[in-house]
Predict the 3D structure of the following.
Amino acid sequence: MTANKHVFKAEVNKILDLMIHSLYSHKEIFLRELISNASDAIDKARYEALTDASLAEGGEEWKIQLIVDKEAGTLTVRDNGIGMTRDEAVEALGTIAHSGTKEFMNLLESRKVTDNPELIGQFGVGFYAAFMVADRVRVVTRKAGADPAHAVVWESDADGTYTLDDTEKASKGTDVILHLKEDSKECLEEWQLRKIVKQYSDFIEYPVVMDVTRSKPDPEDKEKTISETKEETFNSRKAIWLKDKAEITAEEYNEFYKHVSHDFTNPARTIHYRAEGTTEFSALLYLPSARPFDIYTQDYKIGPTLYVRRVQIMDHCEAMLPPYLRFVKGVVESSDLPLNVSREVLQDNKVVTVIKKSLTKKILDTLADMKKEDAEAYGKFYGEFGRILKEGIHHDFERRETIADLLLFESTKTEAGKKTTLAEYIERMPEDQKEIYYITGVDRASTESSPYLEVFKEKDIEVLIMTDDIDDIIISGLGAYKEKEFQSAIKGDLDLGAENKEEKKKEFGDLLELMKEELKDQVAEVRISGRLKDSAVCLVAGEHDLDPKMVKMFQAMGQELPKGQRVLEVNPDHQLIARMKELFAADSKSEKLKGYVGLLFDQALLLEGDMPRDPVAFAKALSKLMAEGVSVG
Ligand SMILES: Nc1ncnc2c1ncn2[C@@H]1O[C@H](COP(=O)(O)OP(=O)(O)OP(=O)(O)O)[C@@H](O)[C@H]1O
């Protein structure tokens, strides 16, 4: 095949544009990205060579080379890793595989990100970072095991296109050749490269080497100097997770986190330990400080990188962590697993089960400590990952109490934005309060002003405000905390405001019957309310039904749900209800009265955040009523 011009996918152009025009203050990160790719490529080759030794092509020493050509103004990053076929090069270097691209670009635009490499790193557009320092990039690559004549050369100057051509390459692997821009020529200097490698890639497992020329006195003529070129390794290469804690600085921990997570911000917490005994392993885990943009997408990869005897076996070993801890990043190394372990085998491997249990405990313990020792940091962390952590209540029966200890909620007694734990709530409960009250809703403001809280306000009872979509399921599943049951403010019968309830039931019995008859297709029951103080009516769900927010969520996902037992609650102390009772006494068959019942029901729907059944009819009836009532003065 001959040279072939290709057009970049639109999102690549956008990223390139961003790289070239907006992200310049941290441009040295390009090297870290290219070294990281080279190291990944060697990991793959090394792993594949375990089963097919010929792929090592002579068992050469794995390494990443930096080659400087000052005359040509180029810097080459060379690896002897897995390499790429022509198709792989098109796929990897012409598109962006992540399905969240569009959302990501929107995020960048909406945040007016002009100098924010954190986001780029998260997104894994590493290779394109080369264009921050180069105006032309040439990639020469050959797949391990392929014929030397079947290599390919990819080239682009970021003008929206790239070319692909066949070429020859004696050694397997990839050369990324950067034609440096005028203002990036310092990247040809040894000291500069050494500094960048040390700062960002010191822990890379493979040597990052460069030919360094030094002059030394000529032994034959002391007046003269001779130059000597030697290959020097710039990185210390220590597998940080195998080192002693005392030997590692906070910066080293942070840099390694950035390497494994592709995040550019420091982690919130680092967990580093070695387990000895029947199962031996080392773990270096991190709790990130910010939620990755793609954590809710299907593309999101779960689990730490798995090493077995210093060989990277897989990037993300999901069998090592429960899904509700999927935000945790890091590395686990065990010598108790076979090198050729597959994902399937890992799923029910005893060693993995032991490691998973230990990691889960360590992470939950760390969160508990963080909550105790640094409430502010924990609150911040919870804001990012609490929604995910609480899934554990549903999925991890054994640890649900431990996870419940970690939950935080706003309440009617906390300042906006401040959260409380369940234990603190219980501590504040007056002695005669038996249950933990909570209300679910979309946000605090609308939830707090809803009629469901009227009696709680009047009696000064604290109610937890839950605004995550899954809260209702989580709390129903949990049932109780420290032997105190949960009671929803919007579900079931409440007896808080029930003075003279029995009397009222009798007094309003006939009117309630009429309402029930009128609304028989809409509600299962009409009853005197134990929760209303200012509003005339509200709709409540049955004790064991899902709350309306959940019902809507399931319906939006196209799921049919069994019809819940909706109940219309009526406030007997409201003027309107008293007037309706009078009207009923005067004419129990009044058509007007029936109309009012319908209007009341629609109003209850509105209060719940729903639409009236027939908005046009509702508006008309309301206007009519207003016309009757509007008077001057
Ligand atoms: N030196 C290399 N050898 C082999 N393949 C490479 C090399 N550099 C890049 N690639 C291929 O190009 C792809 C894109 O690289 P890029 O750095 O843009 O993203 P990534 O590495 O996939 O994402 P992330 O940075 O999140 O890991 C890689 O996944 C890999 O398939």
Q: What stands out?
A: The chain has four domains: 4-233, 240-373, 409-489, 501-629. Residues 350-373 form the longest helix (24 residues). The domain at 409-489 is CATH 3.40.50.11260 (Rossmann fold). The CA atoms of residues 24 and 237 lie 28 Å apart.
